[in-house]
């Protein structure tokens, strides 16, 4: 096998491992995205970062069936996973991933505050493909996004539309989490218990102050 062939094979192996990691997350792609958004990318070792970079690439390319339609990128990520790769055999740079984090978190804050958010896709192209030879009765619409980072946002839009009501920020520890129930406010029982304990202590102090004031008034009488 040629050096190019080995590089392609190695890339595919790492890519499939990344996809498996996403799929086996407790909440699947949603769980992976929320973990990614809260990962300190600059603190990762080169090995740790490479794993995340492959996961970002896999999330964008392989989750289209569930989150958004087909996408035909005009260019890949900035780092070539395989020499002379154009689109799919590439992975993001750390800066690209940091920019994605910042953009998506900004949209999430607006979504929580206003109940909606707007993503802008400059020069987006929609490609219509005629039905195939198989059982396809309708043609296919493919979104062509010039930058891979915008493709990430496109996937996230559909994910947010399907699961947005359950993506929350814990009011106690500020962790972004995926709620199990609609009425779940805290990420974990310990956060809920901590808040309950604090409220109980505050209520006890308030009660003691009231008792003290009543005692002083009674003494004056």
Helical content stands at 40-55%
Count, helices: 6
Give the H and E element order: HHHEEEHEEHEEH
- Structural class comes to mainly alpha
Point out poorly predicted stretches. none
Count of structural domains? 2
Report the span from N to C terminus.
Answer: 100 Å
Principal-axes shape call = elongated
Measured by DSSP, the beta-strand proportion falls in 5-15%
| Number of β-strand runs | 7
Notes on the protein architecture:
By secondary structure, this protein is mainly α. It has 2 domains: 3-120 and 148-183, no CATH class; 188-221. It is 53% helix and 10% strand. The strands form 3 sheets. It has a 3-stranded mixed β-sheet with strand order 1-5-4, with no helix packed on it. Strand 6 and strand 7 form a beta hairpin. Helix 1 (3-23) packs across helix 3 (46-62) and helix 4 runs parallel beside helix 5 (148-163). The longest helix is centred in the last third of the chain and has 32 residues, at 189-220. The model has no long low-confidence stretch (mean pLDDT 87). It comes from Nitrospira defluvii. Residues 212-221 have a biased composition (Basic residues).
């Amino acid at each position: 096998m040629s050096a190019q062939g080995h590089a392609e094979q190695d890339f595919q192996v790492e890519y499939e491992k990344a996809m498996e990691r996403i799929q086996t997350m407790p909440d699947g792609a949603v769980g992976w995205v929320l973990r990614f958004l809260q990962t300190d990318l600059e603190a990762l070792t080169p090995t740790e970062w490479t794993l995340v970079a492959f996961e970002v690439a896999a999330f964008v390319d392989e989750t289209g069936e569930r989150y958004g339609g087909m996408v035909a990128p005009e260019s890949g990520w900035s780092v070539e996973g395989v020499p002379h790769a154009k689109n799919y055999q590439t992975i993001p740079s750390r800066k690209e991933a940091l920019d994605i984090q910042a953009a998506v978190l900004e949209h999430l804050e607006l979504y929580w505050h206003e109940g909606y958010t707007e993503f802008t896709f400059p020069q987006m192209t929609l490609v219509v493909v005629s039905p195939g030879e198989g059982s396809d009765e309708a043609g296919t619409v493919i979104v062509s996004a010039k930058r891979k980072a915008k493709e990430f946002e496109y996937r996230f839009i559909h994910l947010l539309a399907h699961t947005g009501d359950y993506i929350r920020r814990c009011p106690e520890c500020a962790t972004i989490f995926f709620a199990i129930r609609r009425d779940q406010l805290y990420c974990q029982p310990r956060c809920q218990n901590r808040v309950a304990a604090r409220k109980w202590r505050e209520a006890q102090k308030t009660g003691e102050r009231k008792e003290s004031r009543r005692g002083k008034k009674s003494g004056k009488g």
